[in-house]
Specification:
Pathway: Carbohydrate degradation. GO terms for molecular function: D-ribulose-phosphate 3-epimerase activity; metal ion binding. Catalyzes the reversible epimerization of D-ribulose 5-phosphate to D-xylulose 5-phosphate. With about 220 residues, the chain is an alpha/beta fold. It has a single domain, classed as TIM Barrel. The chain is built from eight helices and eight strands; from the N terminus they run βαβαβαβαββαβαβαα. It has helices at about 15-25, 50-55, 75-80, 95-105, 150-165, 180-185, 195-200, 205-215; strands at about 5, 30-35, 60-65, 85-90, 110-115, 130-135, 170-175, 190-195. Strands 1-2-3-4-5-6-7-8 form an eight-stranded parallel barrel, surrounded by six helices. Helix 6 links the parallel strand 7 (about 170-175) and strand 8. Helix 1 (about 15-25) runs parallel beside helix 8 and helix 5 runs parallel beside helix 6. Bound molecules: D-xylitol-5-phosphate and zinc ion. D-xylitol-5-phosphate binds near residues 32, 142, 175 and 176. The site of D-xylitol-5-phosphate has 23 residues, from strand 2, strand 3, strand 8 and helix 7.
Length: about 220
């Protein structure tokens, strides 16, 4: 069963509690929090305090997506609330060290890859991580279109994971909606993340259900 995570980047921040309750009731599997530093990506978003707030609202797993330089600076501060932390391979010099740090703090490590980053960059660390997050848009903003060439990347990654017998999960983030979800799942995605396809809809709960239904490939 493919899991669906709601990215609160497109939520109404003035009503975050209600926005999270809506997706929780509709059956999302986890909450995805996008943190941006204005350096790694050309945008600023939420900070560390948000994960604490979200963890007080919901019992759903919290997945923090660090789109920041030097992600190792923030892992300990986030460890208490985050169940999963995704950091970018492009921003981390010593990913094995980072993965070890996260695991020691009880956090499941996920490595994120920008669209142009090949999967070879994670070949030797694949067995050490909980997941690989394949970005299907350039990170920094919600509401962008799914990049179809990434389907080949997901497929290649899935083939490697299966051939090696690893249990590494493939997360897909960016431009996911009821049309693109089945394509990503067919290519090998285990978990899908969506912001605008959930929160920019009038019926947020209905949007989650539609997405979950469309992901049943
Ligand atoms: C992009 C973020 C995504 C974003 C997805 O930088 O990492 O998680 O919120 O937004 P949509 O689903 O609208 O493409
Ligand atoms: Zn994200």
């Amino acid at each position: 069963m493919v899991k669906v995570g709601a990215s609160i980047l497109s939520a109404d921040y003035g009503h975050l509690k209600e926005e999270i309750k809506k997706v929780e009731e509709a059956g999302v599997d986890f909450i995805h929090i996008d943190m941006m530093d204005g350096h790694f990506v050309p945008n600023l978003s939420m900070g560390i305090g948000i994960s604490k707030y979200v963890s007080e609202i919901t019992n759903l797993p919290i997945d923090v997506h660090l789109m920041v330089e030097h992600p190792e600076k923030f892992s300990l501060a986030l460890a208490e609330e985050a169940d999963m932390i995704s950091f970018h391979i492009e921003a981390c010099k010593f990913p094995f060290r980072m993965v070890r740090l996260l695991k020691e703090s009880g956090v499941k490590p996920i490595i994120a890859l920008n669209p142009s980053t090949p999967i070879d960059t994670v070949e030797y660390i694949l067995d050490y991580v909980h997941g690989i997050l394949v970005m299907t848009v350039e990170p920094g903003f919600s509401g962008q279109s799914f990049m179809n060439p990434m389907l080949k990347k997901i497929d290649k990654l899935k083939t490697t994971i299966l051939a090696e017998g690893y249990d590494t999960e493939i997360y897909v983030d960016g431009g996911i909606n009821a049309k693109t979800a089945p394509k990503a799942v067919e290519a090998g995605a285990d978990c899908l993340i969506a912001a605008s396809a959930i929160y920019n809809q009038e019926d947020v709960g209905g949007a989650v259900k539609l997405l979950k239904e469309s992901a049943k490939f």
